């Protein structure tokens, strides 16, 4: 009888104590999990906000940076000044849109014409996957559309013409891209389409153009 009475009073107390202990442990685990989840959500929110801000900044400044690079390196690359009123770039889709482009004559003051060529608009669609995989060595132009084009041909006794001098400057002075191991292939299609490839020494580089359209010449 005594043992039954002791068991009757002690067992519920032990069960209650154990239940309280389990509940406190479970509450502690739930609180710890909740705090960890909260910190993770805060970290993801901060990371997403920073990533979005960086993406917007890159998108916003890409056009201005590219325009400044073109105007800075135009003489070294084309041997002629290049000016454009507006340049917008979508670096994520590989889209470039420029308006009112003016290409000056090579050799400042040598030719009398005000410029070599003008274009009202230029639209370029680049394959960003190939550009990234090749680390910028291979440029694939899916589409190139040039509108409202005008070209001034001015002959020269010593250099042939302003156009020939520009071509000679681009190809190293010979008018042809010999010696570089390059490949040139033009397959004209409808509406100015086709494919043009210019190799870069067999190293997987160069420029590939799939579709070129010139309107309102």
Structure write-up:
With 217 residues, the chain is α+β, with helices and mostly antiparallel strands. It folds into two domains: 1-61; 79-215, no CATH class. The chain is built from three helices and nine strands. Strands 1-2-3-4-9-8-7 form a seven-stranded mixed β-sheet. It has a two-stranded antiparallel ribbon with strand order 5-6. A hairpin with a 7-residue loop joins strand 8 (193-198) and strand 9. The N and C termini lie far apart (114 Å).
Low-confidence stretches: 174-191
Q: Give the fraction of residues assigned to helices.
A: 40-55%
Radius of gyration, in Å, reads 34 Å
Number of domains: 2
Could you describe the largest sheet, including whether it forms a barrel?
A: 7 strands, mixed
Order of helices and strands: HEEEHEEEHEEE
Distance between the termini: 114 Å
Strand order of the largest sheet: 1-2-3-4-9-8-7
Overall shape: elongated
Number of H/I helices: 3
- Helix/strand class: alpha+beta
What do the pLDDT scores average to? 71
| Strand portion | 25-35%
Strands, count: 9
Biased composition (Gly residues): 190-207
Region (Disordered): 175-217
Transmembrane segments: 42-67
Keywords: Membrane, Signal, Transmembrane, Transmembrane helix
């Amino acid at each position: 009888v005594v043992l039954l009475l002791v068991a009757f009073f002690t067992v519920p107390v032990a069960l209650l104590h154990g239940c309280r202990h389990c509940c406190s442990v479970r509450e502690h685990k739930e609180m710890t999990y909740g705090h960890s989840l909260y910190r993770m959500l805060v970290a993801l929110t901060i990371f997403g906000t920073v990533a979005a801000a960086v993406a917007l900044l890159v998108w916003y400044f890409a056009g201005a940076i590219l325009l400044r690079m073109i105007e800075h390196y135009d003489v070294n690359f084309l041997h002629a000044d290049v000016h454009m009123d507006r340049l917008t770039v979508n670096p994520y889709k590989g889209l470039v849109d420029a308006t009112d482009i003016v290409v000056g004559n090579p050799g400042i003051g040598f030719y009398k014409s005000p410029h070599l060529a003008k274009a009202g608009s230029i639209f370029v669609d680049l394959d960003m996957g190939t550009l990234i995989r090749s680390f910028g060595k291979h440029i694939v132009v899916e589409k190139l559309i040039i509108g409202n084009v005008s070209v001034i041909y001015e002959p020269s006794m010593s250099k042939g013409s302003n156009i020939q001098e520009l071509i000679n400057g681009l190809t190293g002075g010979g008018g042809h891209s010999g010696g570089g191991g390059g490949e040139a292939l033009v397959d004209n299609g409808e509406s100015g389409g086709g494919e043009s490839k210019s190799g870069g020494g067999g190293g997987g580089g160069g420029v590939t153009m799939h579709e070129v359209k010139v309107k309102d010449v």
